Amino acid sequence: MSEKIRVFAPATIANVACGFDIMGLALEKVGDQLTIQKTDDERLTIGSIIGAENIPTDPTKNVCSVAIQAMLDHIGSKQGFHIDISKNISPGSGLGSSASSSAGAVYGANMLLGKPFTKKELVQFAMEGEKAASEKAHADNVAPSLLGGFTVIRSYDPLDIFSVHYPEELIATVVFPAVEVKTADAKKILKPEVALSDAIAQWGNVSALTAGLITEDFGLIERSLQDVIVEPVRSILIPCYQEMKQAGMDAGALGGNISGSGPSVFALSKGKETAEKVGQAMSAVLAKNGIAYELFISKINPVGCEIIN
Ligand code: ADP
């Protein structure tokens, strides 16, 4: 007898300007839909993959099965699962495509196993999926995809993740230009060391952004959405980056930056109307330069992974 579940796992914006490698937020509507089914044998199998090309169906390589396997190993279970994947965000977009799959897979399998783990406990297993995709067990996309909202990773050893309150009116605008930024290049370009003066500026902004979100102080959020360490280096990989960001700021955005390692660029605004104007202004820059794009306007998704019909 098989049991089946359908799951939505949201796409995410990692880094969020000053919070390189520690902050992330979940988006609404864009993300993966997974159908996960218990099987009668011990195998993990990947069925159809819709909406993206070149995603491995080999269960030792697909992040869905890798993440579920990590969870099964932890509890010593030999339960088999079959997973069908429908993606509406491309890998390599900077919107946590592999993380959506990893998060959704462990969330669904956990449900079918009678919920032995909380969502927060599932992060460690979803991170194993991320390790398969990018060699490092990052949590900055899987944590917000699972938990929803705005998340911060205080430490990996031990894993310590917390959620930050944020204002309802905070809206994300995401522009995904149809250009390729190789994650490896985006990593290689970063300098291994940081000047003390830059570190001071960055941790001032990180703590101010956290406080601004919690107290719903839009002025403080606006002043702290600054990144003096990663943006100056990585933005050169994204065509029209400065012009796009400036257009968003001129249209009223509180701030913006690269989403994950790009090429998607995001802005945060107060209210949907401003976020839409920001989206028009940013995408007009790409249109003018003949670069195709996708545009998303989204509230912060408070739920994270969820069961859908
Ligand atoms: P993103 O930052 O959008 O997650 P990455 O380029 O970091 O994109 O990761 C995508 C990598 O993970 C690709 O090499 C892709 O083939 C691999 N991968 C394995 N399984 C999946 C999956 N289910 N969904 C997305 N990517 C997957």
Please supply descriptive tags for the structure shown above:
309 residues, alpha+beta, Ribosomal Protein S5, domain 2, seven-stranded mixed β-sheet, four-stranded antiparallel β-sheet, 11 strands, binds adenosine-5'-diphosphate
Report on the structure:
The chain contains 10 helices and 11 strands. By secondary structure, it is α+β, with helices and mostly antiparallel strands. It has 2 domains: about 5-165 and about 300-309, Ribosomal Protein S5, domain 2; about 170-300, Alpha-Beta Plaits, CATH 3.30.70. The strands form 2 sheets. Strands 1, 2, 3, 4, 5, 6 and 11 form a 7-stranded mixed beta sheet that branches. A hairpin with an 8-residue loop joins strand 1 (about 5-15) and strand 2. Helix 1 crosses helix 3, helix 2 (about 95-110) crosses helix 3 and helix 9 (about 240-250) runs antiparallel to helix 10. The mean pLDDT is about 95. Adenosine-5'-diphosphate binds next to helix 1, helix 2 and helix 3.
